[in-house]
Design brief:
single chain
Length: about 170
């Protein structure tokens, strides 16, 4: 299982690196915040709320999560989990070094299962909880939080327990 976890971690890191070289997604989370803000009322109320959301860095956090996580998933699979409607699934396959992985995406979920290779049948589930702002990884043995946005702090939690905190305040 340790090798499978390392492979998945390497795939996630490679996917994140793609964002640094020009991946452009639809920024579904940022658009949801923007559309919610635009639906509040007249232009004065929308403008005041927009300034508040910018000051609280809601737009910054949404943009960062889109850039690092959601647009990477969208780049590799062709669709964004937050842009999906409830009940819709997107299934893709990837092969590397004689190993085949099945990706099943649905709203706020990404399941990765090895279908061919030494860890055939092993899978992980990455889930986003909009109420808590947490991303969790379930490998079938344990469920671990891998990222969390609380107040003005984004925490990336590595498998060894090390944390990388990123302030989203201007």
């Amino acid at each position: 299982m340790k090798i499978f976890t390392r492979i998945v971690a390497a795939l996630v890191i490679m996917a994140m690196l793609v964002n640094l070289v020009g991946c452009y997604g639809n920024f579904a989370l940022t658009r949801k915040v923007y559309n919610w803000n635009g639906s509040l009322g007249n232009k004065w109320l929308n403008t005041v709320v927009m300034w508040i959301l910018m000051w609280l860095p809601v737009y910054n956090a949404a943009g960062f999560i889109d850039l690092v996580i959601l647009n990477t998933v969208e780049f590799w699979t062709g669709s964004n989990p937050l842009a999906m409607e409830d009940g819709v699934q997107n299934i893709k396959y990837a092969t590397n070094d004689g190993k085949t992985y099945k990706f099943i995406m649905s709203k706020n979920n990404l399941s990765i299962t090895q279908t061919v290779g030494p860890d055939k049948g092993k899978s992980i589930l990455i889930t986003y909880n909009p109420e808590t702002g947490n991303w969790t990884l379930d490998d079938g043995q344990s469920v671990n939080t891998i990222a969390s946005l609380k107040n003005n702090n984004l925490s990336l939690i590595y498998p060894n327990g090390e944390m990388k905190n990123i302030s989203v305040v201007r």
